[in-house]
What we know:
The chain is an all-alpha fold. The protein has 12 helices and no strands.
Amino acid sequence: MKKLILSDVIAKAGVDPIFTDPASFSSLEIQIALLAYTFQIYLDFSGYTDVVIGSARLLGLRLPENFNRPYHASSIAEYWRRWHMSLSAWVTQYVYYPMGSGRVERWKIYRNVMIAILLLAVWHGVKLNFLLYGLLHGTAVCLNRWLRFQRRWQAWSVKHETFIQISGWLVTFSFVVVARILFKTPTLDDAAVFAVYMFESELSGSPRFAIMFWVCLIAGIFSCFAPAWVTEATRTAFKRQHSFTQGVIFGVVLLTGAYLSGGQALNFIYRNF
């Protein structure tokens, strides 16, 4: 529930107005909104699946996790292994493996990868934005796979493992953020307009975001990048609390969500797919 509340506030306080009318905002505000949307969509979808997984457990069912800290990925291939894992597993099992996976000729491997990534993208909708989104991600995964098989790269990466991890994460995360333009905008024309204003807006000045936007964005970023031990320690500490205390915490979270949402229902992004 916490993730869904953060996602909702980030959307209403910054992301939605800027994506609706980027011409009315500065380049810095647009860039911040794009970064915020990257975290919003993760908080929205992972929060939604957490609710589903928790509800299933109340009925005695154990569903698999759907996300594994995707923004920690140091390559685009690793990102797709961590993001929407249930869909990725289905495409891998019923599309990628039947085509021969990685046990075929080299060019067919890249073909199989490209088809699998395209299916992951157009699952969200059969339109040009998602098609181009899939092509970009598919190409990036293929390039990553090609690079990993280059002997010179293998030898160099062993000697510079720390640098590879840091630079790989930076390139991967930046790529994911920029590609989100295609995911959020309805048409290619809208994506082009957004991209132009993101770098060439005539407006300037300090970002005009409400304090609550910054609070929720920082909390969202922390929830994405917090070390695993912090998450586990928080979960353990909550389990040790008396049932009354747990109920009070739940009540505070629900009341906070109702207050921040203005009494409106949370708008799940993935409800549209």
